[in-house]
Amino acid sequence: MRVNVISDVHGNVRDLARAGDGADALVCLGDLVLFLDYADHSRGIFPELFGAEAAGRLVELRTARRFDEAREMTRALWAGLDKDAEIEKAVRKQYAELFAAFPTPTYATYGNVDVPPLWPEYARPGTTVLDGERAEIGGWIFGFVGGGLRTPMRTPYEIDDEVYAARLAALGEVDVLCSHIPPDVPELCYDTVARRFERGSSALLETILATRPKYALFGHVHQPLARRMRIGVTECVNVGHFASTGTPWALEW
User: Fold this and answer.
1) Please, which residues have CB within 8 angstroms of residue 251's CB and are 6 or more apart in sequence?
2) pTM for the full model?
3) How many domains does the chain have?
4) Which of 236, 248, 229, 245 is nearest to 207 (CA)?
């Protein structure tokens, strides 16, 4: 059995169409939407609306963790525009292309920049969306919990710690624990390019130690200090920044 696993697609439709090649199923750990590309300031919803120069300035402020200035800048840019309507229109366009590219079968959960209420409109037969739920794939039980935790970035799908912990608890024991964010371990949470810690989950770490899955798979941190490490008996793997690599991580058994 082989399952290809991806995360942080961020608009990479071309490679997504081939992500299931050679596998019995595809697992996607979220962040389909591309709002702002930190490497290429011309790509994403924000530069499409306001230009690459404005996008570069926003990246600069966020990277410096000057979040109040970044919010003030974006408030000024959005003045006079219907922000919610413009973003939804752009997200819908991306979702139409991305969900059409998913192979059958695909098992997917949300990332922190995704918009869950829109997914039912675009998920076709053959794509199963799970959050706080389990699925049997090739005789193994996969558990899924999506989204991110609250941060100063205020991305679209951030949830309270207690809600996240409850969804993890609802999974019970699984063979493969799938999430968008990593467990709260420094080596897994630190982004070496952005030079900052992304937020991991302490509840996810506790669940790994308590339930001892074979694998814990996640994404979110694009350039982690460590892509893979063992926690107890569990192999923890950052499956990679699919937007830049275009290459899935293969799980075989």
Assistant:
1) 2, 3, 4, 5, 27, 176, 215, 217
2) 0.93
3) 1
4) 236
